[in-house]
Design goal:
Shape: globular
Helix content: 40-55%
Order of helices and strands: EHEHHEHEHHEHHHEHHEEHEEHEEHEH
Largest sheet: 8 strands, parallel
Distance between the termini: 20 Å
CATH architecture: Alpha-Beta Barrel
Strand order of the largest sheet: 1-13-7-6-5-4-3-2
Oligomer: single chain
Number of domains: 1
């Protein structure tokens, strides 16, 4: 939905990657089953923005006129519009182990480029010309932050390939802007244990590679833009998807991390609203309570801060159980997206405090136009946290976020 007036045209939605479905018919069915319930939680009749997750399979299907008309019909019937797409998970994302497969194919592979081009083309067709306040609507597609770090290991040829393919995608976005008039930005999503996991690493990658003279020259050759125009296009069409859970797990400072991106000239096309698990005093008992969260589907990276404020990283909970420091002087933060309306859980804290700071900043001085709630792991939470339906949980999250933003504006 459009949250604010024309001076701050911020769109709020949730990411449909919380719903199972890879093939287009299954995706469409899940939309009809869930979106109306969430939509009904919004107490007005303004159009409802949708954060759509589209698998590679569904993306190929949506190249047909029939499938696109099915999507168009759904949007019309539900008074819903499309403004952002989650292009991170390429393949199966529910019901079987995903783990590091969520990063495949990475940006060294042509399949990732082709898939992301298809998503941008789809979004350009469905993006509204303007919102209810008469402001232009820009689109965003979030994506893998290059690769999974162990697959790259500092290999210069792979790093150059990743940047080169991202610049090729920007050329596609420039072409879409010329042919449709719609502006779409690719949003790289830093994540623990990935090529880009910290804000420092992200800024360095943009400055050294995506905003470099070589990138400008490559884009100029692909598009015919001047070098100055190519530089502007790179800053317009590629930025960061700031996932609040990921930043909190990395022990970033919420305000400083946003400022760092802004000072580097890196746009934030989308902020994903999410919270992580937090163990502030790690003991054998708290680790034992954490074990039910070590489920087999998703990666749950752990970042540990010890008594000396040193950080250690573990690729998954099982690794942290084997190698983490279990003492009252250490803190663990776990990449497990928990409902944003929970500030504590039965045996743990969450990083909701971090999310509140980001939302307060957004309310005071918007850092993005796209807010997307992303608690995709609801279905793998321990059973005691699944006492309502997914749609009801999402509706509660939407209400909580709206309340936080409204309170911060007072």
């Amino acid at each position: 939905m459009l949250l604010t007036d024309s001076s701050n045209n911020t769109h709020l939605s949730y990411c449909t990657n919380i719903h199972a479905g890879e093939a287009w018919p299954d995706v469409l069915q899940s939309l009809y089953e869930n979106v109306p319930t969430v939509r009904a939680s919004v107490p007005d009749d303004t159009p409802f923005g949708l954060g759509l997750r589209v698998s590679a399979s569904a993306s190929k299907a949506l190249q047909s006129h029939t499938a696109r008309e099915e999507l168009r019909s759904f949007l019309t019937k539900t008074n819903t519009y499309l403004f952002t797409i989650n292009g991170f998970p390429y393949g199966t994302f529910h019901g079987q182990p995903v783990k590091e497969g969520a990063y495949k194919p990475d940006w060294t592979q042509p399949e990732r480029l082709g898939y992301t081009n298809d998503l941008a083309t789809l979004l350009a067709e469905f993006l509204p010309a303007q919102d209810t306040a008469g402001q232009p609507v820009q689109g965003s597609v979030s994506t893998v932050p290059g690769s999974y770090k162990p697959w790259i290991n500092g290999d210069e040829s792979k790093l150059a390939l990743i940047a080169g393919q991202m610049v090729q995608h920007v050329a596609h976005l420039v072409s879409l802007k010329e042919t449709t008039g719609n502006t779409i930005a690719l949003a790289l999503e830093p994540e623990p244990c990935c090529l880009l996991e910290t804000i420092d690493e992200t800024v360095d990658f943009f400055q050294q590679r995506l905003f470099s003279q070589a990138a400008q020259t490559q884009l100029s050759q692909l598009t015919g833009l001047s070098l100055t125009e190519a530089n502007d296009a790179l800053h317009t069409h590629i930025g960061v998807c700031y996932d609040v859970c990921h930043a909190a797990v990395e022990f970033e400072n919420p305000i400083d991390s946003i400022r760092q991106l802004q000072h580097a000239g890196i746009t934030i096309p989308k902020v994903q609203l999410s919270s992580a698990l937090r163990l502030t005093n790690v003991t054998a008992a708290s680790v034992n309570h954490l074990k039910p969260f070590a489920e087999p589907v998703y990666m749950h990276q752990v970042v540990e801060k010890n008594r000396r404020n040193e950080l250690s990283r573990f690729n998954d909970l099982a690794d942290a159980f084997r190698g983490g420091a279990i003492d009252a002087g250490s803190e663990w933060r776990v990449h497990f997206h928990v409902p944003v309306f929970l500030d504590t859980m039965e045996h743990f804290d969450t990083t909701q405090y971090f999310l509140k700071e980001i939302l307060a900043l957004q309310a005071r001085e918007p850092v993005t136009h796209h807010l997307e709630i992303e608690t995709y792991s609801f279905n793998v939470l321990p059973q005691q946290y699944q006492q309502v339906s997914v749609a009801q949980a999402i509706a509660r999250e939407m209400h909580w976020v709206q309340t936080q933003l409204a309170d911060a504006r007072v």
